[in-house]
Amino acid sequence: KTGLRIDAYFSASKINWILDHVKGARERANVGDLAFGTIDSWIIWNLTDGAVHVTDVSNASRTMLYNIETLTWDNELLTIFNVPASILPKVASSSEVYGHTSGQILSSSVPIAGIAGDQQAALFGQMCTQKGMAKNTYGTGCFLLMNIGSKPIFSNNNLVTTIAWRIGGKVTYALEGSVFIGGAVVQWLRDELGIIKTSAEIEKLAESVADSDGVYMVPAFSGLGAPHWNPYARGTILGLSRGTNVAHIARAALEGIAFQITDILTAMQSDSNIEIKELRVDGGASANNFLMQTQANFLNTITIRPEVTETTALGAAYLAGLAVGFWPSMEEIAKQWQINRTFTPIPDPSIEQSLREWKRAVETTKFWANYDLNA
């Protein structure tokens, strides 16, 4: 119904816990004194001085209470989690005028016209508006979304199916895979190991060696995300030898980010039966040219970095501008999107072997997590 995995990451179990464990919460909810919403709902509630309680389909789809096929709050799920429907926001499209700022916030009344979840907004900001287009955000974690068109596809590979946006009466769906540790591994090398002083230094250090010399880093510091979903996994560095130096570890760390994205995109292509033609990239770590070239090589697909890499904010602005007529159509918005650099894959016969070794490294990491010393 929801396209999600059952997980406390989403809202439903948290709402249930609050209503059952915070004194007086359920009683207040039952008499209409409590309202639930994701952060967009809270912001709009405050901007309108409590006049508007709303969310959009993309945020609703991440609560584990919203049916992404019927596009309604699901009564069966509300019963299972014992959540009263009265606390839920109205679900609107991602691009329309929901209300106006109150006079207490700004001196003039400003229309509030765009809502989207973080990564869905980034997908729109990257103008991945056609089926089969995909983007990856390289932040602290990594978030890869593929536009799968007007009908949901439910994953056989531990991916999430989500609503990307609804504009007018048309709903667009996406497959999503999350990597918990992306750019955070660079921060770890800087802050905990001290092998670099700034994050930017890692690119030059990684390029100072021809390869990782057989070293693989699986950065499962907080478990493995898609397509593995193993919360007990922990980070591992494999293949160390007496000749291993900090440059090999730095290179293995960046390659580990690219390997994880390759795993997710492979799963997406299998689920959707769509072969992507390009990957659009954004986020802080997309500035690392070595990482972007490595990603293109591993995927054997061109990787495109736009001029504006803060695509979440850009996507939200596009949705709002579309609603108020600042842009008359998505085709006009698409003209705003500009390429900064395209990374074309460089043929390398060793990549296939490296991908196999990476899979072996991941399986070793999972074995460590699952092994019972008392067995």
* CATH C-level name of the largest domain: Alpha Beta
Which structural class is indicated by helix and strand composition?
alpha+beta
Radius of gyration: 22 Å
The overall pLDDT average reads 95
What would you say the CATH architecture of the largest domain is? Answer: 2-Layer Sandwich
Oligomerization status of the protein chains: single chain
Would you give the CATH topology of the largest domain? Nucleotidyltransferase, domain 5
Poorly predicted residue ranges: none
Write up this protein:
The protein is of the alpha+beta class and 375 residues long. It folds into two domains: 11-92, no CATH class; 115-375, ATPase, nucleotide binding domain (Nucleotidyltransferase, domain 5, 2-Layer Sandwich), CATH 3.30.420. The chain has helices spanning 11-21, 25-30, 39-47, 57-60, 75-80, 118-125, 184-193, 201-207, 246-272, 289-299, 311-323, 330-334, 351-370, and strands spanning 54-56, 66-67, 72-73, 90-92, 95-100, 111-114, 134-138, 142-149, 160-167, 170-179, 216-218, 236-238, 278-282, 302-306, 339-343. The strands form five sheets. The protein has a seven-stranded mixed β-sheet with strand order 9-10-8-7-13-14-15, with helices on both faces. Helix 10 links the parallel strand 13 (278-282) and strand 14.
